[in-house]
Amino acid sequence: MSNSLKVPKVAMKSKKKTRYWRLTILVFVLIITTVLGLLHQYGQFKTVGIDALCPFGAIVSAYDLMFTGVILKRIALSSFILLVAVIAIALVFRRAFCGLICPLGTLQELFGRMGKKILGRHFTIPRWLDQPARYLKYVILLLVIIFTILTGQLVFRPYDPWITYHHITSPELFTEFLLGFIILLLTIVGSFFFDRFFCKYLCPMGAFLAPFNKLGWFGIKRNKESCINCQACNRVCPMQINVAQSSKINQLECIGCNECVNVCPARDTLYVAGPRDKKKITPGLVNILVVAILIIIIGTTTATGDFQWKIPTLKEQVIQAGEIDSSLIKGKMTLQEIADAYQIPAQFLVEKLGVNEEDFHKPLKEINEKYGLTTETVRLIVDEYIKK
Ligand code: SF4
Ligand code: SF4
Fold first, then answer.
1. Of the candidates 253, 250, 239, the residue with the CA atom closest to the CA atom of residue 275
2. Who has greater pLDDT, 189 or 349?
3. C-alpha 259 to ligand 1 mean position (Å)
4. Separation of 368 CA from ligand 2 center, angstroms?
5. How many whole angstroms from its chain centre is CA 145?
6. What is the mean pLDDT of the chain?
7. Residue 224: which domain range?
8. Which residues contact 154 (CB under 8 A, 6 or more apart)?
9. Number of separate domains in the chain
10. pLDDT above 90 for 58
11. In this structure, how many other beta carbons lie within 10 angstroms of the beta carbon of residue 336?
């Protein structure tokens, strides 16, 4: 290839840097979400559960919100805000959320890189099995939505590898999340051998976002005149898309990682552009804009108080409710919190429940068995005090 047809060395270096930046963003989001999950379980600063920080929860509870006005248990307004951000990103940059933000995608990429290093290569599933298996994720999406609507519960939760990842140190791992743990293991082991194993075959979020590859404004184009058929794009594509033979890369499977664009050595051959090739932009700018959309939406809604990061304390919930409502009491709360929130003298609860000083500071679910209590009993005693 003559020099004039090659991407100049400086530009090639900058493309390499863009690839590192993409990985850095992915790892950063994985670290942040992992820390939030740990803070929820162990921290003093009680963050909301990971369900409330996942846009997929909003997809499956959208029906309940629209027709009953109720958000499913564990889902919060923040899930819907994240879904709006993901859709906004998809309308502009297609499935860039999958290729640039999704922390479950990051886990797969990290184990995938490990697999490639150790095994020296990655494997592909034979086409006769791979192609039909890719439809599985659409079936899963449909089933999850139907069963969530029918039951009014987050039916996917015990199978969700992302929620399971956040329960890896929890005693519920081998009870409530046993199947999720098996799917998480399958995801990790699968991605060790095959690129983005979960994304290709099992991810319902990917299935939801796939149609945006036909609708999103910016997309990848290939100039077949200048293509030298080196196959570098095909080799790097984690979703095994035949980039080298396509003129537009708008296949449902593309996760918008722009890796193909960043490895192409031929000048002006693979590029990101709007419709009719107007407004070409670099993959580096795509990275910046995707992160900016996310930060602007989360930042603004955090400032308005709509995006919740922290679970309100019982006292804050009672004040917010504006009336004394004992149904706010949950098994994870201590008698001390309950006494503070409803302004009940500790002595009254101790005498009524026969609880010792030490257990007064433990969650109800931990002391229920010892004293033969239920959360409902505590609610009734609180009601009794309030009516006095
Ligand atoms: S076609 Fe390009 S952008 Fe799409 S998944 Fe493959 S490498 Fe990533
Ligand atoms: S990387 Fe793909 S698009 Fe670019 S020159 Fe090689 S075959 Fe053509």
1. 250
2. 189
3. 6
4. 65
5. 17
6. 90
7. 218-283
8. 51, 57, 60, 61, 72, 73, 74, 75, 148
9. 3
10. no
11. 13
Ligand nearest to the CA of 249: 1
pTM of the model: 0.85
Task: Indicate whether 122 and 25 sit together in one domain.
Answer: yes
- Is residue 219 within 6 Å of ligand 1 at its C-beta? no
The sign of the torsion formed by the CA atoms of 209, 184, 99, 166 equals: positive
Distance CA 165, CA 364 (A): 26
267 lies in the same domain as 292? no
Answer whether residue 1 is part of any domain. no
Whether 197 and 232 map to the same domain: the answer is no
Chain segment 2-47, per-residue pLDDT in tens: 666 777 888 889 999 999 999 999 999 999 999 998 888 876 667 8
The binding-site residues of ligand 2, defined as CB within 6 angstroms of any ligand atom, are 222, 227-233, 243-244, 264, 266, 269-270
CA 211 to chain centre: 19
Please name the residue whose Cα sits nearest to atom 4 of ligand 1. 254
Backbone angles phi, psi at 273, to 5 degrees: -150, 165
Give the per-residue pLDDT at 2.
Answer: 61
